[in-house]
Amino acid sequence: MSGYVRNLAVAARQAQSVIAACSGAQRRALLEDMAAQLLEGHVSILSANALDMQAAREGGASNATLDRLLLDAVRVQGMATALREVAAQPDPFGQITRSDTRPNGVQVQRQRIPLGLIAMIFEARPNVTAEAAALCLKAGNAVLLRGGSEAAHSNAAIATCLHAALRNAGLPTAAVSLITDTAREHVLELLQLTDLVDLAIPRGGESLIRFVAEHARVPVIKHYQGVCHLYVDRAANSDNALALLLDGKTSRPGVCNALETLLVHRDIADAFLPAALAALKQRGVQVRGDAVTQAFDASVVAASDADYAAEFLDLIIAVRVVDSLDAAIAHIQQYTSDHTEVIVTDDAAAADAFVRAIRSSAVMVNASSRFNDGGQLGLGAEIGISTTRLHAYGPMGVESLTIERFVVHGSGQVRHPNLLSSPIQ
Amino acid sequence: MSGYVRNLAVAARQAQSVIAACSGAQRRALLEDMAAQLLEGHVSILSANALDMQAAREGGASNATLDRLLLDAVRVQGMATALREVAAQPDPFGQITRSDTRPNGVQVQRQRIPLGLIAMIFEARPNVTAEAAALCLKAGNAVLLRGGSEAAHSNAAIATCLHAALRNAGLPTAAVSLITDTAREHVLELLQLTDLVDLAIPRGGESLIRFVAEHARVPVIKHYQGVCHLYVDRAANSDNALALLLDGKTSRPGVCNALETLLVHRDIADAFLPAALAALKQRGVQVRGDAVTQAFDASVVAASDADYAAEFLDLIIAVRVVDSLDAAIAHIQQYTSDHTEVIVTDDAAAADAFVRAIRSSAVMVNASSRFNDGGQLGLGAEIGISTTRLHAYGPMGVESLTIERFVVHGSGQVRHPNLLSSPIQ
């Protein structure tokens, strides 16, 4: 361990005390200036990105990778807009969430404070540099950013703009620290800094997330997969079911909240499946199904167990006809990734039973899986989605970058009032 | 890895689904029956404890250890009472904590659900077996208990009583699984079960906690130390300050919320320190202080840096006279263990500044450090205290054994309404 990352983390931790001493108005103004700096610096950002894009193309990167890496004027504007939106959010720092007076007259409150120092470890998507920084700072944290080597120039150019805003406000640039040497050993070092880093958030492919989870001593919140299910109940409104199916599978197949498996109650299969299979086929979706499903459409490929466990991230879907609500629940419990599960039904009791039995980060009744998203659920921007049942579960916004602690006000109360009056212990 | 613990964890995880399907009333009745079973089984519990106590005495255990290990009729009654209190608490499982309707008409709620499977790793204190089980079950979790070998017979006898209650209710005894083979390799195995264990909570000496933190892949919430500070401000009420000092240092010196360092503003030192030092001496407290403190009382030993960092857990206190509120804050920020910090002052602005600058799990204004305790702060029983800024910070009650997730109700809303109407993708 060279100490390179430790030194950065120590400086970032010290910078966090300064950020934490800023008022909500100051943090808001900082983020608004960061947005302005990104727009002012867009030429340098786009030039830097062009270098990354050229290297990626020469390295044979896929179209999907190139698309994730690309910045254009619209995306830079998008970054600035996201920062302004985070700036405008309510300030969670110092918020009193609960207040209670105890029998002895002591007032007990819970108060939100920043986690402290966040480590963001991500791939591609240079916009994460700006958005993660904004979310962390809004809540009074400092952030250590370790982006992918493929976006090195882009991330550095963005960080330069963010630093300009910090300097304008007389704040330490270490509050947004970019780990520019992306060697894996530095990620390893970062993940051991239990005395400095309060939370590490990995975002990217499964390989990166597994690496972080395997090696981290610091707390990690993550999600691996979104194997999201849509269950069409016997009491479902078929039009709703079809709309949710197509929105969930085909609107953006490569995202974590896209549907991967369709479950259909046998009592509604005759009425629902033919139209559903036809609509999926029309949209270029390959259907892999059980024998019952195959009986509706000979082009349906036989589904294997691996298909029901799969996160296709593509125009492929696994289908199964189930005997009952309980069978649907049992299937989901077997294959769930704890991300998002959907039931379509007009039977309130069935909906309640489904919600009760499902433990995923988000459960939808008659609404698309595509709503499991910070912006859609009202959090504003999200720093990531958690499928870890600790601290945050589902999309993580600014508030998830804080923790509640206790603030107690008394007038001299003690636990052992007799102690003072008895002079000998 | 023998798989011994994995097998237990798999069974416990399955049992958790059954517990999670119980109503609040059923879980309440279960805990009340557990209390009854403990009382009915008190003879076997005390006999088992006698075996542990004899072995401990023969092994040369200290008085403090023997006191932590001992069960008598009063303590068994205390266990039963604690279980009844937990039983009577509000049920957090399924609680809707937030509700909001989005612009598109979708209703977004946050709902509490159990974490799942908790691993409790502890030493001595057989009552933890019963209390941890109660807290976990109340919130709908299952629990894996790994107690210390010194309390093996006691823990087994307590678990037997808890199992009787589970059987009476037709519930799987695996919901409260005792790891009876206390070999360290099994703890290691337990701490790797990332697919089964949602949270591990260690309670005991620093060596145990460090071992768990070092080796865990599963999430861990813990506290190492309670280096708690009392700062007597220039605007302090001296009577309150003395009361808080004595309550904090002498009422139970061996606990984590006991005071370890006293800081005194120089402007109040003349008025406060003589009486404070005399009262401490009267109660057998050894004072280690800076030169200014020593000038008040020649019997004061010179304090070293190590003394200001120390958690004495004894009738010893470190004292320092500081120049200002800011100096007190700086001292605390240097030596804090993030546990509990106290300010005594009648100056509201000073109190606010102190609260703002201190990031510990609990900060007290004119109230004793001894209130950083689940029962005292209104949580009911606590499963432990966290000084980890994640998920829970401060005492952890039943609610800390749950996580909020999203429940979304719609009427067929999708993110991309145009998708359905355009037949070709």
From TrEMBL, chains A, B:
Q: Which domain of life is it from?
A: Bacteria
Q: Which reaction does it catalyse?
A: L-glutamate 5-semialdehyde + phosphate + NADP(+) = L-glutamyl 5-phosphate + NADPH + H(+)
- Its chief place of residence is cytoplasm
| Compartments (UniProt record) | Cytoplasm
Aldehyde dehydrogenase domain: which residues? 8-285
What EC identifiers does the entry list?
1.2.1.41
Alphabetic keyword roster? Amino-acid biosynthesis, Cytoplasm, NADP, Oxidoreductase, Proline biosynthesis
Q: In which pathway does it act?
A: Amino-acid biosynthesis; L-proline biosynthesis; L-glutamate 5-semialdehyde from L-glutamate: step 2/2
Q: Which GO terms describe its molecular function?
A: glutamate-5-semialdehyde dehydrogenase activity
For this protein, the record's Pfam families field holds: Aldedh (PF00171)
Q: Briefly state the protein's biological role.
A: Catalyzes the NADPH-dependent reduction of L-glutamate 5-phosphate into L-glutamate 5-semialdehyde and phosphate. The product spontaneously undergoes cyclization to form 1-pyrroline-5-carboxylate.
Similarity section: Belongs to the gamma-glutamyl phosphate reductase family.
List, alphabetically, the PANTHER family matched.
DELTA-1-PYRROLINE-5-CARBOXYLATE SYNTHASE (PTHR11063:SF8), GLUTAMATE SEMIALDEHYDE DEHYDROGENASE (PTHR11063)
Protein name listed in UniProt? Gamma-glutamyl phosphate reductase
